[in-house]
Amino acid sequence: MPSDHEAFQKFSFGTQVRKSPYSDAALRWGAKGFSVYNHMYIPRDFGDPVQNFWNLVNEAILCDVGVERQVEITGPDAARFIQYLCCRDLSKCQVGQCKYVLITDQDGGIINDPILLKLTENHFWLSIADSDVLLWAKGLAVNSGMDVRIVEPDVSPLQLQGPNSRDILRAAFGEGPAELKYYWFTEYDWDGIPLIISRTGWSSELGYEIFLRDGSAGDKLWEYLMDVGRPLGLHPGHTSSIRRIEAAMLSYHADMTLENNPFELGMDRLVDLEMEADFVSKSALTRIKTAGVSQLFVGLVIDGLPLSGSNDEHWPISKGGEVVGHVTSAIYSPRLKKNIALAMVARDQAKIGTRLVIDMSGDVRDCEVVPKPFYDPRKSIAVKT
Asked: Between 20 and 30 A from 323 (CA), which of 136, 242, 356, 361?
């Protein structure tokens, strides 16, 4: 039988792409394909993506998301610097709390949409999406005049997501972590191995993230969770495109890039232009809000037969023969029995009920602008006690 190292060779691009502490374990547990995210391998195929979706929404899945690298900011001015990075008011963020934030540049463009974790008054993690926040933060710090230290620590998260996740977490780590409130975290000592466990996750289901602070224990943690969780319905899996599009959760590079600002994406709630504290994009976002935006992010239902997979390009959207936008993410939802999509369209075409036309690489179909999210719009599943 080949070693873990030998088995992974068929997926390897060389040393320029890093394995996560869980890559070998995921491969042993059935991963059949990997993608690259933040210069690391992430499992993206455990067989049937529809079955992975049903495992998530009916039981629970364990996902290697070690690619969600942490940018750690510490030092006497860490709190002031983290606010300078982010356009959301963080003045009331408490130790032990998580916040979904936007990092925006001097022109108001979105660099990243990480989860912020506040470990102490001057110790923060940014759990990032797929872009180089570490370099951006280091560059800003150079001329900021603030006393901060910015590094990538040895921290690698796993996601435990789905309706059975609380019971599995309780069996693995006891009552305390299992009773965390939504978007809060706790530090946990697992037989001398330091963890942080948070009530967060990229699924819009009940779920948790387990941040391993010692990469050498990756195999041990994965195997322990699978051993405890299998009798309770736990499956190895990957983040579900079906579920995230149902929930209208944005994916960096797919649904937003540096060319997009928070207002056209409907993320006004994450921008506070009235707070006293300064932040990088304050002037730019003030100008954009005053001028208004020319395009808006919408949900679509696409007519016709079920899509066979997700889109690998931005399909053009037209009205009366004129291109008015593009599809960013599209998928067939087996639960909703509909083709659903996220798209950016001209502001005057964003009204609910507007009929448009999509050219899906030669397959031309009608579609309709609909409310988003497509499922559980109040996020009652994820936030339930």
From this structure: 242
Same domain, 64 and 165: yes
- 266 and 353 together in one domain: yes
Q: Is the distance from CB of 196 to CB of 186 less than 8 angstroms?
A: yes
* CATH code, domain with 296: 2.40.30.110
Using the 8-state DSSP alphabet, how is residue 268 labeled?
A: G
Kindly provide the b/e burial profile for residues 45-80, where b requires at least 16 CB atoms within 10 angstroms of the residue's own CB.
ebeebeebbebbbebbbbbbbbbbbbbbbbbebbbb
Task: Tell whether 75 and 58 lie within a shared domain.
Answer: no
* Per-residue model confidence as pLDDT tens digits over 297-322: 999 999 999 999 899 999 999 999 99
**β-strands 98-100, 115-120 pairing:** antiparallel
Q: What CATH code is carried by the domain that includes residue 92?
A: 3.30.70.1400
Q: What domain range includes position 295?
A: 251-370
pLDDT in tens, 46-79: 999 999 999 999 999 999 999 999 999 999 999 9
User: Whole-model pTM?
Assistant: 0.96
Rounded to an integer, what distance in angstroms lies between the CA atom of residue 67 and that of residue 158? Answer: 10
The answer to whether 235 and 55 are in contact (CB under 8 A) is yes
3-state secondary structure at position 54: helix
How much is the pLDDT for 182? Answer: 98
Among 114, 143, 172, where does a domain finish? 143
Peptide bond connecting 373 to the previous residue in cis, omega within 30 degrees of 0: yes
